[in-house]
Amino acid sequence: MKQIYSEIIQFRGNHYNFGYMQGEKLKDSLTVKNRERQWKVRKPRFMVDIDEVKSAICTFAPGILDELLGYQEALKWPIEKVLQEFGGYRVEYVKSGCSILTGDHFLIRNYDYHPKTYEGRYIVYQPTDQGYAIIGPSQRGTGRMDGMNEKGLAMGYNFMNRKQPGDGFICCMIGRLILESCATVMEAVEMLKEIPHRHSFTYVVYDRSGETYIVETSPRLVQVRQANACTNHFEMMKDENRHHLVDSKRRLDVIESERSGLVNAYDAFRLMNDRNRGVFSDLYSSWAGTIHTSAYLPRELEAWIALGGDQEPVKFSFSEWLAGKDLELDQITGEVDTDIPFVHMDEGAHWSR
Questions:
Q1: If 0-12 CB within 10 Å is exposed, 13-18 middle and 19+ buried, where does residue 28 land?
Q2: pLDDT for the residue 262
Q3: Other CB atoms within 10 A of residue 48 CB
Q4: Helix, strand, coil percentages in the chain from 3-state DSSP, rounded to 5
Q5: How confident is the model at residue 88 (pLDDT cuts 50, 70, 90)?
Q6: What is the DSSP string of 123-167?
Q7: What counts of helices (H) and strands (E) characterise the chain?
Q8: What's 89's DSSP letter?
Q9: Bridge partners of 42?
Q10: Is there a contact between 136 and 303 (Cβ–Cβ < 8 Å)?
Q11: Which of 3, 122, 191, 229 has its CA 20 to 30 A from that of 147?
Q12: CB 166 within 8 A of CB 210
């Protein structure tokens, strides 16, 4: 078993200063060094049009552009490099897993992906210029793979396919845009209809109303349905599905068969995080191993997270943090059954190894 960690980053202030602080932390880090080596092996399959990216970000959450400029100032990089690394627009994506379950005032999410991409940062940010405060793990610096905002809107996404990519935002930036700018599930649904999508993903949004919306998206179409569980296949846009759906359907069947017997959020968390229940995955070398399990309780404004399986969740009161009480921890720890290096903590976390 491999011991892993996520750093907890807390910040209150404007977006530019938030970006500058993160850039200072990343300067000369293993994350940056490993990513530079990753780019040498996996050449980018996209172009960065500076004006187009800036315009796209400002349409939905202009504060994030200020955050990117803060990164640039701290890292002393050209803006093209900052946008390539952290802008979240027109970036290629590969296969992954992920499962999401909602219930009586909770959203539980397994994030299944490859260790060499996991940056190990759990961020709690309260902007003072514009946008909502957010709690959750980050991806590609500015993005969020799941999270909850101060209004009690929670979000997670599941990969579907990368066929015929279009010009648009990648999943983790879309997650950030939703949480930054939307107060309710209906606002999130409307944004997902409007936003340009790079790849095909399903976004699950849930808020204090107890309503869950599952938004199936691709560069070509967006469809909306209501359900309480989602894995890695479309139910409405079936023409967009991958050919191999056996494991996705198996995990969904497990969740659906167990859901009626779940009494509370903790029961749901155990279903998703226990390695012997059929949802948690150890397929790290196949880009589909469960790295973290997150839970969001909008009514209480509480967030939970565990790294690896068979773990007790670390619980945070987001409501107390919003009232000014800082989180006491500076790190979340756990363990996973793999020897693959993680990009934020190991030398050699690049594709030539």
A1: exposed
A2: 95
A3: 18
A4: 30, 30, 40
A5: confident
A6: EEEEESSSS--EEEEEETTTEESEEEETTS-EEEEEEEE-SS--S
A7: 10, 17
A8: B
A9: none
A10: yes
A11: 3
A12: no
Per-residue pLDDT tens over the stretch 294-331: 999 999 999 999 999 999 999 999 999 999 999 999 99
| H/E segment holding residue 318 | helix 318-322
Q: Torsions phi, psi of 194, nearest 5? A: -90, -35
Structure tokens at 252: 């969904």
> What value, to the nearest 5°, has the Cα angle with vertex 307 and ends 302 and 311?
80
Q: CB neighbours of 243 closer than 8 A, spacing ≥ 6?
A: none
pLDDT digits (tens, 9 = 90+) for 38-59: 766 555 555 567 888 889 899 9
Two structure tokens written together for 230? 């989602």
* 3 state SS of 201: strand
Length of the chain: 353
Going from the C-alpha of 339 to that of each of 25, 46, 310, the distances in angstroms are 26, 31, 18
CA distance linking residue 158 with residue 161, whole number of Å = 10
Question: Residue with structure tokens 């404007």?
Answer: 14
Q: Round to whole Å and give the CA distance between 91 and 37.
A: 17
Spatial distance between the Cα atoms of 256 and 45, rounded to a whole number of angstroms: 38
How many CB atoms lie under 10 A from the CB of residue 347? 11
Tokens of 83: 């946008």
Mean pLDDT score of the chain: 91
Q: Which two tokens stand for residue 52?
A: 């187009």
* CA torsion through residues 101, 107, 110, 116, sign: positive
In angstroms, rounded to a whole number, what is the distance separating the alpha carbons of residues 157 and 160?
A: 10
**Residues forming beta bridges with residue 204, ordered by sequence position:** 156, 214
